[in-house]
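Input protein
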Amino acid sequence: MSLLEVRDITKNFGKAEVLKGISFDVEKGEVLSLIGSSGSGKTTLLRCLNFLETPTSGKITLSGETLYDSEEGRNLSDREKRDRRLHFGLVFQQFNLFPQYTALKNVTLAAELLKREELKREKASAAAIKEALEGVRLKAAELLDSVGLSDKADNYPCQLSGGQQQRVAIARALALEPEILCFDEPTSALDPELTGEVLSVIKGLAARKMTMIIVTHEMEFAKNVSDKVIFMDSGVIAVEGTPDEVFGNSSNARIQKFLKSVNN
């Protein structure tokens, strides 16, 4: 059984059919890159997996648990969507850090809120809550260190470069201990000289066998870091395989045109 199984996912916005029956699997510890032209459906697919959008139809299964099945015929509540979203971490194109909080607070904020809710449901003592929250902060400090920002914990986003802000965003996503970490064009908002530091962090996560789904226009990066690559075109999977199989697919005119356009 694969960690993630996606079956026949469609997504319509009004009359516009953006996803047209997407199916794929992701194994634990695998890195999947999604490539394709703007408008091919990559970001919409990622948002459906993270329950920021609800698929029109299809099924999503994680570790054998059905997260979404349109055949059940019911809408998920906001609470159900949030609970399912916690299985996935999402790093956006724009960093989306809270400007009024330090780097450390940005990393701890969501994790602290979730921990408080969990302990209150368990009717934990004030001392137990305080101890647990200190553990969250210590873990956040370790995560900032793991992305090379231990010396920036007390800095505010305006005091950080774009690359540093994106690394804080990665640490924030990891703080919730997701089973799958998703990236939506993580370097598109960065100057070229800052791209490398973010890609280096992602490569480090791949080396530690973090399961990841990455939407990217960095073709060389996708070749080097991915176990599997999916090329999307007009809402469908046009080509799927290993990096060698996808990037070396000379029989598919559409992917060759795409690769030529991004390499020029």
In short: Strands lie at 4-13, 16-26, 31-35, 57-62, 65-69, 88-91, 180-184, 212-215, 228-233, 236-241.
